[in-house]
Specification:
Elements (H helix, E strand, L loop, with lengths): L2 H33 L2 H37 L6 H37 L5 H30 L6
Helix pairs in contact: 1-2, 1-4, 2-3, 3-4
Length: 158
């Protein structure tokens, strides 16, 4: 396979994993938190944490590497305006995702403690979930905008 097509394939594949895992785990967390069932919240949050470490982290590393490879192969300048906006949006998505992982771990641990102590899910878990939910939207919108930028490569400014 030619280097360009290999780089493009890896870039598209990793973007699919990154975006798909994000949407999938977000749906799972929203759905389970609505249930209010502590056992289910613990099990789902545990799985979501693992999925984020395995899939989101690896895809999040592959994305910029293959992106830089594609930029090089296509002869783009690293300072193309649409690329600068892409970098900023990617950093914004990462800045939202990093605390989300911590929040998921805390929700998982709070659910585990509630199960161990045979108590209701603490209000702290719901508070953390609201923050988690709020951070998901800018990350989702940033990644959606990045897809648009990758496809259109608009001339944003001279």
């Amino acid at each position: 396979m030619e280097p360009y097509f290999l780089a493009k394939w890896l870039h598209i594949l990793s973007s699919t994993v990154l975006f798909g895992t994000g949407i999938g785990t977000a749906f799972q967390m929203v759905w389970v938190m609505r249930s209010g069932r502590t056992q289910a919240i613990h099990a789902t949050a545990s799985a979501v944490v693992i999925a984020d470490w395995l899939f989101t982290t690896s895809a999040g590393i592959v994305q910029p590497l293959t992106g830089l490879w594609l930029i090089h192969l296509q002869g783009w300048s690293l300072t193309e305006p649409w690329l600068l906006v892409t970098y900023a949006l990617y950093l914004m998505a990462f800045a939202c995702w990093a605390p989300v992982v911590h929040l998921q771990i805390r929700i998982r641990d709070l659910a585990a403690r509630a199960l161990t102590e045979d108590t209701a899910l603490p209000a702290e878990a719901r508070r953390l979930y609201r923050i988690w939910f709020a951070l998901g939207w800018p990350a989702f919108l940033a990644l959606t905008a990045i897809f648009w930028l990758m496809i259109t490569k608009p001339a944003l400014w001279s």
